[in-house]
């Protein structure tokens, strides 16, 4: 979620923690603040970190949480605490939940962004719950099971003005980017037809097809 570093750490609030600190900091105060708090080379101040909660902690969620370990992990949720035990042990002071709705309600003021990495059929429901509370969302693929769910989630994200990203790690590779650049630059001529093998994890939508052009 590197692209979200510029998101206000207070969600939809008008004043972010970083702007508040910038406006109220004094020279005297800065002289006694530890370097890791101020930031600088190799240091990110806490005010520039996102407060992230994860719906899912075992399996793929463990990898996603690790990828966000440079941020503040503030809450973890998984129905299978045995499966999530390894990740839970890495964050002993972080609150744990079995019900993501309960987590979102109780930790609402502490959460900026949410990871959704649970069984596929629950992605849309969990992501929608987070979006409706004004949380930025990183959701594993497939984002939804139907076109209807996809459209509804898209509308909700636009209305809430939150940043969203889907976990298409393979589509973030240099090879995939190069192919897109070939198509955009016309290097292989006009693309009239694309043949692909659909799988249970495919995320082909009308919008993704149009994005090729």
Helix content: 25-40%
* SS-based class: alpha/beta
User: Can you identify the CATH class of the largest domain?
Assistant: Alpha Beta
Shape: globular
Number of domains: 2
- Secondary structure tally, helices: 10
CATH superfamily of the largest domain: NAD(P)-binding Rossmann-like Domain
Tell me what you see in this structure.
- With 213 residues, this protein is an alpha/beta fold.
- 37% of the residues lie in helices and 12% in strands.
- The chain is built from 10 helices and 6 strands, in the order αααβαβαβαβαβαβαα.
- It has helices spanning 17-24, 27-30, 35-38, 60-67, 85-90, 100-106, 123-132, 147-160, 174-185, 206-211, and strands spanning 51-55, 72-77, 95-97, 113-116, 136-139, 164-166.
- It has a 6-stranded parallel β-sheet with strand order 3-2-1-4-5-6, with helices on both faces.
- Helix 5 (85-90) links the parallel strand 2 (72-77) and strand 3 (95-97).
- The chain is globular, with a radius of gyration of 20 Å.
- Mean pLDDT is 80; it is low at 2-10, 24-38 and 199-213.
């Amino acid at each position: 979620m590197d692209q979200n570093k510029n998101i206000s750490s207070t969600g939809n609030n008008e004043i972010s923690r970083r702007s508040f600190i910038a406006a109220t900091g004094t020279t005297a105060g800065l002289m006694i603040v530890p370097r890791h708090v101020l930031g600088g080379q190799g240091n990110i101040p806490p005010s520039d970190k996102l407060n992230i909660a994860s719906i899912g902690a075992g399996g793929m969620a463990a990898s996603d949480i690790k990828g966000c370990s440079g941020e503040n992990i503030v809450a973890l949720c998984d129905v299978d605490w045995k499966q999530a035990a390894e990740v839970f042990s890495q964050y002993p002071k972080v609150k744990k939940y079995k019900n993501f709705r309960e987590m979102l309600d109780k930790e609402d003021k502490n959460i900026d962004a949410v990871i959704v990495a649970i069984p596929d059929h629950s992605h849309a429901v969990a992501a929608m719950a987070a979006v409706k509370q004004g949380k930025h969302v990183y959701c594993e693929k497939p984002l939804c099971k139907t076109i209807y769910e996809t459209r509804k989630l898209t509308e909700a994200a636009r209305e809430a003005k939150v940043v969203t990203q889907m976990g298409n790690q393979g589509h973030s590779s240099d090879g995939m980017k190069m192919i897109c650049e070939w198509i955009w630059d016309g290097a292989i001529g006009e693309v009239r037809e694309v043949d692909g093998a659909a799988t249970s994890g495919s995320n082909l939508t009308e919008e993704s097809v149009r994005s090729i052009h």
